[in-house]
Amino acid sequence: MSRHERTGDIAFQQPGLETALRIETSLNAKGLSSGATILVLAALSACGGNDDKIDVPVTPPVSSGPLEAAAQCSVDTLQTAVPSAVLTAASAVTPSTGTAYCRVDGYVTTQGPAATSNQVRFTVALPRSFQARYYFAGEGGSAGYLPEPSASLLSAGYAVAGSDAGSTTPGVDWAFATDRTKAYDYAQRGVHVGTAATQALVKAFYGMSSGANANRRLYRYIDGCSGGGRMGIVAASWYPEDFDGVVAGAPGISVTNQMFFGKVAKYLIDHPDAWISPAQLQAMDAALLQKFDAADGAVDGLISDPSVVSLDATLRAAFTPAQQALLDILVNGMNDFGLTYPGYTLGNPNGWSAFMLGATPPPWSMNPADGRLPPAGYLVFDTTSRGLFGAGYDFASAFSFDDSADVNGWNAMFENVFTGSGTAKAGNLNSFFQRGGKILFWHGTADNGISLNDSFRFFNDLASAQGGQAKLAQVAQLYTVPGLQHCGGGAGPQDVAAQALPALAQWVEAGTAPTQLVANRAAGTSLPSRSFLLCPHPQRAVFKGGIANSAGLNVNDASNWSCQAP
What we know:
This protein has 566 residues and is of the alpha/beta class. The protein has 17 helices and 15 strands. The strands form four sheets. A nine-stranded mixed sheet has the order 1-2-3-5-4-6-7-10-11, with helices on both faces. It comes from Roseateles agri.
């Protein structure tokens, strides 16, 4: 069986051709109103592709010159380039500002493993002046929408593509997985077939399939955060020939992340007295900052190194015994019947409400008018469980984290249904790296959705698989981002993906690995503008002024920091 076929109890041959979430879209597979996702907007607004985050000035590496269109922007002309897809539209777009482009939309019909077919929709924007760079926007959450092309990337000469990955429910709704064909597409096939179709269209439109530009290389990148980061790692693992470079922000590459959401939600449902209010989290956040701000070598209003933080007896005393038990789960993670997931860092715990705890204690309500919407983590585990076990499945009453059959059965079902997407294995990236592929990981130190510690775990696994940290550094880097919550938000920089992409392109195309990144935070109501020096792990950014800062250096200027080995 080839690596492009499903392994396990169901084998089949796949067809030959293979950031903001649309929160307003209803979770209709569960009968939820569109308002049911209001609470998670802040938590998930940056979890998708970076189509809204990347729209900042981008300076790409020097290329060998732009390409002009070699074909008409029409369905009739371009359909022959993708015989296994159906093009539904092709039209010239001339925005009032920015770059003119040809937008092409279509879909690929997939079959199996269920006795059903599915349509994986895709889109690609083809700029007037093309630098032979292809960008695929990875989507977070449950995918399910077509991203709008980034104006700045189009201006920089990228062809910008995306796909709904075969999902039909944007936001945080995996109930579509009752159709196993849709589940398989979302897991890994959907991105692949969308990629194959859109790359074929790029080559046809610019004459790279034949003619004068036939020998011009197309450089191909995929970029996303959370579920979008997962897309990049899955693509590199299953289809190493599809991309040359991956930007993976806070990648959701472990199924136990979803189980951890469920564990916290179930604990709160069973122990509502353990709920911790947003005000309490804010107070804990302030107390931690006051105590540990200087522990990372700079007094700057941030805890850049959450490993220096701990909850001592004094801090714990502010919480009831039931709340302390919940804190232990949040910080220590899960280790249930062999399934483990590391807990959250304490770099900025005031963000836990949106993802984990909710704005109000349970019982929660799906009716927005009640003002008791559940947190994002509840919705993730609930809709995924319904996708796995049926629309009528209620984990709150049917599932126990004290039952090994429930825990291991859920995990096994996820691995079977979302084939290739449940647990990323470091060794599966060997083919991608051997082909010259490069990966830039980034993850916020205050992430409130996916544990930073899980990225450390995976990066260490990669180092072992590649023969050590020095060898891994030739193909992959990890950047930790001070103060950044899940893909966005918090007191950290908000343009990390925009800075990572050109650095990755320089690495892939010129062989020059980045030695650092500089990311930025705009001025806000309570925070000044700041540039951040980001260093490849295990290096860390060190403030040149030190804690005392007797020289009076500006702590908000990245030039006053340096990357140093641990």
